[in-house]
Fold:
Amino acid sequence: MPEQTFAHSHSNPALREQYARAGFGGRVGWGERPAVLVIDMAGAWTHTDEQLGSDLSSVLENIKTLLAVARRKGLPIYFTTMAYDPALREAGEVALRKLPHLAKMIRGSERVRLEPSLERRENEPLIEKPRASAFRSTNLLSELISERVDTTIIVGCSTSGCIRATAESAFDLNFHAIVPAEAVGDRSPSAHAGSLFDIDMRVADVMPLAEVLEHLETLPDRA
Amino acid sequence: MPEQTFAHSHSNPALREQYARAGFGGRVGWGERPAVLVIDMAGAWTHTDEQLGSDLSSVLENIKTLLAVARRKGLPIYFTTMAYDPALREAGEVALRKLPHLAKMIRGSERVRLEPSLERRENEPLIEKPRASAFRSTNLLSELISERVDTTIIVGCSTSGCIRATAESAFDLNFHAIVPAEAVGDRSPSAHAGSLFDIDMRVADVMPLAEVLEHLETLPDRA
Amino acid sequence: MPEQTFAHSHSNPALREQYARAGFGGRVGWGERPAVLVIDMAGAWTHTDEQLGSDLSSVLENIKTLLAVARRKGLPIYFTTMAYDPALREAGEVALRKLPHLAKMIRGSERVRLEPSLERRENEPLIEKPRASAFRSTNLLSELISERVDTTIIVGCSTSGCIRATAESAFDLNFHAIVPAEAVGDRSPSAHAGSLFDIDMRVADVMPLAEVLEHLETLPDRA
Amino acid sequence: MPEQTFAHSHSNPALREQYARAGFGGRVGWGERPAVLVIDMAGAWTHTDEQLGSDLSSVLENIKTLLAVARRKGLPIYFTTMAYDPALREAGEVALRKLPHLAKMIRGSERVRLEPSLERRENEPLIEKPRASAFRSTNLLSELISERVDTTIIVGCSTSGCIRATAESAFDLNFHAIVPAEAVGDRSPSAHAGSLFDIDMRVADVMPLAEVLEHLETLPDRA
Structure:
């Protein structure tokens, strides 16, 4: 469904043309050294009975497909979740007031545990991020520089929140950013579609997962 | 017009209720020491014949009203514009490809010159920012800390770009962020309205300008 | 011993005068809202049989004295240690080559465990920092802003490494920084004395612990 | 003279051995894509009659030698100076109290003008930095990422201030950092020698300029 919605935006040539005239929405393309960032595929988002949860099962399957190729090719892979201390000092009063759902993201709880079926490897760092962007107040940037990464493939959830924020940070830092449309999800189909369009116009190249997989296959093995 | 659109979102109680149930859209409220950030009120955005331009005359007037009170009360005030070196090394290849309009933002050009009628004072810093957020790769954060600011009143343009990005940075850093609806503008009315709603749900309190002015009048004079 | 060395530098008026003539070494003084940063008081530094270890028992006692006052007054308190994932991806190749001792700082190990006698409370965040400065790639800055902190009292170890780096970050961000001379330590007495002098000339006010305690007693209780 | 002092430290094998035993002072070596950072070669430091000034004529000549090779090879080159607004809001009260010499660093003044004989090219950005590190509150990081730089060759002044701080930032971000001993200078020979040793032990590889030039000659031309 989300893919269709994105396809719909793509098939709105008038709107794309209007953005293009204002100097938005160019293609950045691939750099030489991609890494995969898997954003917030943890219980608080993937369990349908959670306050923030929704059915992300197809997103999860698509991420697994991507990870299989990325691992075979030896690309750096990073996972994020959100997590605060039990006293919530790490969240801050401003954040807790604006986003009351953050008060449930306690380090070590089931809610912030990564989806086990992703089978994170020991050499794939798990980053506990306090804000929407995976770069904010974390060590991710230093790790990407250490690995000479120049391209971030951003997958997970939510398209309108942490995916958008992470893609914007990557853009701000001059990393190429690629968002495979079927490997990101959101509890709201309209927010998903609107955000994918906005991401594509401003900060990252949104493209079909198949195109991403095809590109990765052309890379030399580093594994 | 934009105000009406925002009012319309405000008058969509079903949508707000849906966000509230997911733990979004709480009120942050005012801190003790506000500052005013005037974002990108320069020729590239305020001249209607520019690629990015639109009629921001009412936004400009509203900002002047706010500045008059802020100056009388002695609040710290900061202006931003965008500006790159003529060779565009400061922009970066990724940014230039995604947002071709950035190639016109050359330091010292008329296009990036602040709207003269804002009458910037010598003690009101002008920040040349390379990205949408006024905090990214600039000295703004250190200046706010030096002034013990805890609240940022964010005005200017564009609502869907630099206003949103600046408000998100402020939120990420635990500054209170206030967006007076009639003092921000966008070339697209629908992007304006949608962004105001999103900003209000996620990172800042959007409120009528009158309410902002009323609050500032209650503050002690620091001038 | 270190205190004597610092006293010695203080008693070198010719050198201080030389720095003063070049425009260094002014007094910053106290802000209004101090917090305490306890840096790296963990096994890797406090156990004398560790590669980086030295006898920090008097430093530890002095920190406890400071914490007792700070807790009574309700000041925000933050602890740091260093910690990497077992695969050391979080450290990075550059760091591991330059500082091979970092390879032992594995999350969850005894080596990076905080000195238990400091009796960290649940509302005193423990920050795992990947670099010398407590601000680098961590959430500390957002937490200080949330608490409206304007002054950082920096204690722990090592004076020539993480204390200096943390004090420089605080200075860069326009936080007042205070280093109580007897509450910081280093495995090398000469590096300790030289660094205290350098810190005092460039980034923070170094002062006797007694003077710090005396100031804190004048503050209103926030506990 | 400074070179001799560094040689002297190098010839103090007992001290180096002591640091090595504690896990400091490893060799990082070269990455694949170096850039040159020329730090603060402006009037405030290079004019001997300035408060911060000293005779940096040999350092200047050595930098010119390095730049000639770097330009021929097409390496990215960045210059820094310090500069504040006339009202000094960009400096901040903390910085002005601790380092009164900063009050003279006014944007556009002769004092902060780059040494003309360096003949900066239009495609070599000039970065106005507000603090010692060239990375703090500037756009340098984004520019390095855009150019896929992994190695920073750091030259200029002062060894004990901005060179050390810039090298530490580079290290923190996992950039390789190289300091050619004869291309950095300081008003104090002892501070110069002590800082070079400390830099070499903690954050960057200090090496003779000849060795740097020799390495650059092995690189493919990108010009």
User: Anything to note?
Assistant: The mean pLDDT of chain B is 94. Residues 181 and 208 of chain B are 5 Å apart (CA to CA). The radius of gyration of chain B is 17 Å.
